[in-house]
Fold this protein.
Amino acid sequence: MSRQVVTEDTGGRVGPGLGSGHAEQNSAAAGARDSICGMRCRIVFPVVFLLSFAAFSQQPALSIPSSGSPGLDQYRASRIAIYTDDFGELKRYREADAALGPPAQKEKRVVFVGDSITDYWKLADYFPGKPYINRGIDGQSTSQMLVRFRQDVIDLGPAALVVLAGTNDVAGVSGRTRNEDIEANYASMAELARLHHICVIFASLLPVNNYTDDAKESFALRPRERILALNAWLKDYCAKNGLVYLDYFSAMVDDKGMLKRELSNEGLHPNAAGYKVMAPLAEKAIARAIAGRP
C-alpha cells in the first residue's frame, strides 16, 4: 500500500493527503492567532480613542477676534451661544408673537424694533392705551433684526413700524460693520415692510456722551462722524422713498455734540427724562406715517 504524503501550501490550506489530526492542530493554531489579533485590536482601539480625546480636549476654547476694547470683547464673549445657536434671537418673542394674534378691526398696531434703547423703553408708560408693541432686544445689530423681521414685524400685521437701530453696528457688537452694510440692512427692512403695506418710520441714531467713567468706552466705540453720516443717509433715504424720518438726535444733543447729560445716566441709554423727550416725537412721526404724510 502506498503511503499518504502530508502537504501544506503557503496559505495554510490542507492538501488532499493531510490526515484529520494535522487538520485539528492547524485549526487550533489559527484560532490562537485570531485570539491574539483580537486582543491586540481590543487594546489598540481604546488607546487610539483616548489619545484622540486627549488631543481634542487640549484644543483652545472657542474664542472671538479681539476688537481692541476689553469691555466689548468680554460682552461679545458672553454672547457666543447667541451668535452660534440663535443669531436673530427668535426665541425671545416667539411665544409672545404667537399669543398676540392679528390686529383687531380698525386697530392701528405699531411695532417698535430696535436694540436695548427700545428694549428698555416701557412703552405702556409713555403711550398708555395705545396698541404699541415693543420688539427691541438688548445688544442687537441691524443684521440680527433682519433675521427676525418676519416673525417679529411682518407676521404681527402692524400698520406702522418704528426702527431705532444701528448704534451696536457702529460699535461692532456683532462684528465690524461698515456704514454701507448698515444702510443696506435699513433698506432691506424698508423694502420688506412696504411689500406688506407697513408704514416705515426710521429713527435717527441717538448721540452718546462720555461725561461719566462708565460712558467712556461705549462713547469711544461710537464715533460721532459715523453717527452723523448714518443719520444723514437715513434722512435722505426717507425723503427719496416716501418714508418718515424721526429725528431724535436734534432734540437730545447738547452744544458739544453729545447726548445731553440729564437725558442719560451712563452716556448711551436714555433715562426716564430721555424717553420723555422721545415719546412725543415718536407719536407725531407715527401719526404722519399712518396718515400717509412723510
